[in-house]
Amino acid sequence: MAAADRQLVVAVEGTAALGPYWSTIVAEYVEKIVRSFCASELPGQKLVGTPPELALVVFHTHGPYSAFDVQRSGWTKDVDAFLSWLSGILFSGGGFSEASTCEGLAEALKILQGNPNTTQGHQNHEAQKHCILVAASNPYPLPTPVYCLPTQSTDHKENIETSKEPSIADAETVAKSFAQCSVSLSVISPKQLPTLKAIYNAGKRNLRAADPSVDHAKNPHFLVLLSENFMEARTALSRPLHGNLAPNQTITKMDTAPAVTMPGPTSNGNSSG
């Protein structure tokens, strides 16, 4: 079965550090982007092809007291179902610990790559693959074992091989792999963390491209960095929300929300710290 032409993974830090900001982030940013990405038309452009696919990755703290590092969902083409997954995330733990950002990004890249076997870099070059990292903590600073980082083939420059052995990498190293795999990486955070901006810069395909400006006067302290290649996201944050939720409507209460239930295959990794 051929992969969808357009795919989006939202990688969310599931710690209590992000919890108080989550309803605002969903209403003001993530839902707008998701609805724009899944719209059948954009201004001046009619979209064709299969409906886009959406997936969710939730990562937690890095350390011996974390029950698991990463959870992942299957793919869905149902926007409302995906938004319900977002509203069902239970934020807990963390706060004073670094997050497993590296592992979360690696899992997002893994499911966006699909087949773990060697892929041709020029195949399906029209595909649009995007990832949004939503975090409120600094990433764990030391390199950790992760899977599915691409390596350049020595025989053909257009070939990208996916290593079946674990690589030792930090979050910035994983972010650089997004550019190699032609996956855009955007970052949203309620805090102006230099480490998250460094991850965004590492994932840029064109280092000289200017960062798209985002009007977020309501949340001036937020860090909102959208990839220059994610046109739907840039369009979404420059126009009113088209959806059922008012901008200030609370999506979920962190102290009562049930743990997220993700249909499809899931993967839980034990903490390596």
From TrEMBL:
Protein name (Swiss-Prot/TrEMBL): Mediator of RNA polymerase II transcription subunit 25
Species: Zea mays (Maize)
Origin: domain of life: Eukaryota
InterPro entries for this protein: Mediator_Med25_VWA (IPR021419), vWFA_dom_sf (IPR036465)
PANTHER family hit by this protein: MEDIATOR OF RNA POLYMERASE II TRANSCRIPTION SUBUNIT 25
Domain Mediator of RNA polymerase II transcription subunit 25 von Willebrand factor type A as annotated: residue spans: 5-228
Family recorded in the similarity comment: Belongs to the Mediator complex subunit 25 family.
